[in-house]
Specification:
The chain is mainly α. It has one domain: Growth Hormone, Chain: A (Up-down Bundle). It is built from 18 helices and no strands. Helix 13 runs antiparallel to helix 14. The relative contact order is 0.16.
């Protein structure tokens, strides 16, 4: 069954390029998480500055998402796809050679712009390729699997650099993110423009915006934006602060925290594979709502144990955090990203994906800032806050989502 849904030959190439691109984007998102610990000591950063650095990529992603969607609807998917990977190279090198907080903050903003572009245009483009091939959801879920793998690679690289290099390991992790972008840049030169876009695009930004403001599109934007906003609150907080959180809970070195982060993030790999298999069988609503609910349970339980000062063994901490990552990857981590790209019509698909992602990144920014401050009070309070947002995501999905999203093809 699964084999019939996966591309072959010429159709496999766009899927491969998209997967590598998202891997690079997610790697560059997560580089700051393994760099924050060494950076805090090396640059003598305050707790507020640590939070700002963690937030920079999300601020940049908001801007990248806001403009790239409508630009890709007007001028095509391929041209703008080159821009984001080039930003990873420039920003990665600039970050590695930064000497002060403000320089690094600006380069991380630039990384975020590239991330925002990638998560909009890649999924708009690939959903159209998938539609022509007559597939539904599997390819997009495969691409999101590589997003999890990119973050895992970032944690692993951080652990190795921390072990062998020490306080300047952050420079090497940023350089690695820049180097990783070179291969997909070369491969993207060979992909072709979307045939769906060629047939159905609108040659006026004003007309695109007017069509997007129609009642159905506005309703879909709300339906997709709100769960994405709520999911990213917990997802970006956990992704960007996980090594620092584990330093406080299970270890006293950056190496042990980065290694623990790899173990926790490994839980997403089987979850992502299960999603690839199930997404066209059980549907997005079930995966998204159950993922939100079970992640809320895991984070809430760990937060409560920490809040009441129970001595939580390291393996229990890893299991509960790993469970939170598992159930996120099993559901909303995938469905919140791919559902808009599948559901908006071709002429406004990039715009709809961009607006939805912009609100998702706003959620991530909200979560990183809120959790960044709450963790200074107590780790348990921060985790309970994240648990509540996941519970709200479950409620929102249950109320807003209908079954009409589960269809065999996206419409032009």
């Amino acid at each position: 069954m699964l084999s019939r849904n996966i591309a072959s030959g010429r159709e496999l190439f766009p899927l491969t390029v998209s997967s590598l691109s998202i891997l690079v984007a997610s790697f560059n998102i997560a580089t700051i998480s393994v760099a924050l610990g060494p950076l805090k000591s090396y640059m003598e950063l305050s707790g507020e500055q640590v939070t700002y650095l963690a937030s920079a990529v999300l601020i940049g992603a908001m801007f990248g998402a806001a403009f790239s969607g409508i630009i890709s609807d007007r001028f095509g998917r391929i041209g703008i796809l080159m821009l984001d990977l080039i930003t990873f190279v420039i920003a990665g090198i600039g970050s590695a050679f930064s000497t002060q907080f403000y320089e690094l903050f600006l380069f991380r903003l630039l990384v975020g712009v590239g991330v925002g572009i990638d998560y909009v245009v890649i999924f708009a483009y690939l959903s159209e390729v998938e539609a022509i091939a007559g597939r539904h959801g599997t390819g997009l879920a495969i691409v999101m699997f590589f997003a999890n793998f990119g973050i895992l690679l970032s944690y692993g690289a951080g652990a190795i650099f921390s072990l062998y290099i020490g306080l300047e390991s952050w420079r090497y992790i940023f350089i690695t993110g820049a180097l990783f972008a070179i291969v997909p840049i070369i491969l993207r030169l060979k992909i072709q423009e979307s045939e769906e876009w060629r047939k159905f695009h609108i040659e006026s930004i004003r007309t695109i915006f007017k069509k997007f403001m129609e009642k159905k599109n506005r309703g879909d934007a709300l339906k997709f934006s709100l769960p994405w906003f709520l999911y990213q609150i917990s997802d970006q907080s956990l992704t960007l602060f996980l090594p620092i959180l584990l330093v406080a809970l299970i270890g006293n070195s950056f190496y042990s925290a980065d290694t623990g982060s790899v173990v926790v993030k490994l839980f997403t790999i089987p979850a992502s594979l299960i999603t690839v298999i199930l997404i066209s069988r059980v549907g997005r609503k079930f995966l998204q709502s159950s993922g939100f609910f079970l992640r809320s349970i895991m984070l809430g339980l760990l937060g409560f144990l920490l809040l009441v000062n129970v001595a939580v063994p390291s393996y229990i901490t890893v299991l509960l955090l790993g469970g939170a990552f598992f159930f996120g990857a099993l559901g909303p981590d995938k469905t919140t990203v791919i559902s808009p790209a599948e559901s908006f019509s071709t002429s406004v698909r990039g715009t709809g994906q961009g607006i939805s992602e912009m609100f998702g990144r706003m959620g991530g920014l909200t979560g990183v800032i809120a959790y960044g401050y709450l963790r200074l009070l107590a780790p348990g309070i921060g985790l309970i806050f994240l648990s509540i947002t996941c519970a709200l995501g479950f409620a929102t999905t249950s109320i807003l989502f209908g079954w009409k999203i589960e269809r065999d093809r996206i419409s032009p």
